[in-house]
Amino acid sequence: MSVEQAVVQRADFDQVMVPNYAPAAFIPVRGAGSRVWDQAGRELIDFSGGIAVNVLGHAHPVLVQALTDQANKVWHVSNVFTNEPTLRLAHKLVDATFADRVFFCNSGAEANEAAFKLARRVAHDRFGAEKYEIIAATNSFHGRTLFTVSVGGQPKYSDGFGPKITGISHVPYNDLEALKAAISEKTCAVVLEPIQGEGGVLPADRAYLEGARALCDQFDALLVFDEVQSGLGRSGELFAYMHYGVVPDILSSAKSLGGGFPIGAMLTTDALASHFSVGTHGTTYGGNPLACAVAEAVVDVVNTPAVLQGVKERHQRFKTRLQQIGEQYGVFSEVRGLGLLIGCVLAEAWKGRAKDFFNAAEQHDLMILQAGPDVVRFAPSLVIDNADIDEGLDRFERAVAQLAKG
Ligand SMILES: *Cc1c(COP(=O)(O)O)cnc(C)c1O
Questions:
Q1: Sheet harboring 133-137: ordered strands across?
Q2: Which domains does the chain have, with CATH numbers?
Q3: Is 143 in the pocket of ligand 1 (CB under 6 A)?
């Protein structure tokens, strides 16, 4: 059978797409592990992982198998019926975490939307209509729906869309005194990323999360951890809260959970979950069998001592070399992050130029990320080969050398 397909190019984006993105000049068409090929057959090394999503690289055989097996069974049934992959995945997440209950959806923003709505519903049911305030962190990112941009601490994402969701305040991250000053009997939830991702790959201090936990307990507020970026092995633990030893009441997951297939999840306890009774919340695609079958395979592969230990070893391999590049060319003031979520903070003279690093890397056949204008971010596959790490970092060094020459 031959199906005629129109030839499309990057220029078509500027004709037919809503212009809310500015994608790179090439179009990836195929991937295998941590290598990607574009339309012209050029091979790139992928340190971007689809923005901390492709946790097992591209076309991982276990995920391809899980997806095709499920594709031959049943794709979608809606939540009028449940399905086997949903229930198996929920069991695995419950067994592996603090949570007793799981709500599935399709993205990080939706997982957070569910988390914030649940927090408000719990407070409303238990304490009445006056307890609805949410405290979040400056520079945090929680998604692009109106509720999640309102909770997010970056006004550039929430300004200019009319009235925001009210009852939300922001405090500086890693500043326990500021949180202490802001929290009150009206607070229903404190929302934090254990590692701020979009905000610049900034890990929390352990004492900060411990202090936040204690304050939430004192004021009957729920502690919500947004682990959309930090979760599913990226920190070197299944979830970053395990690294810190601080347990939230509600946790949101997405990105890596699907390894490239869209899925989100909100995890919580029995007592809190009971406030989402039948009909209070929902989404058509949530718990979709294809998504859950893939995510189940992701959890099976990632949640093993070998893979999680491997993340910590790869962290060291990246960090050592990035620090050396930073010193040699004077471009970084700090290399920070946990596991395979790594941020290189640009030195004073390079401030605001993260996009130039992105572009230079692309010219050297390397896909990287920025996290704001001042941080170069790496979020590769958790199972990337050492040879790909070394070759990718060689390319990165050549890109940095070219930039440094001016
Ligand atoms: C990416 C991200 C989100 C939003 O996820 P989407 O799937 O894009 O909706 C929310 N929180 C954090 C911490 C993220 O990194």
A1: 101-105, 264-268, 250-253, 222-226, 187-192, 133-137, 168-171
A2: 10-59+305-405 (3.90.1150.10), 73-302 (3.40.640.10)
A3: yes
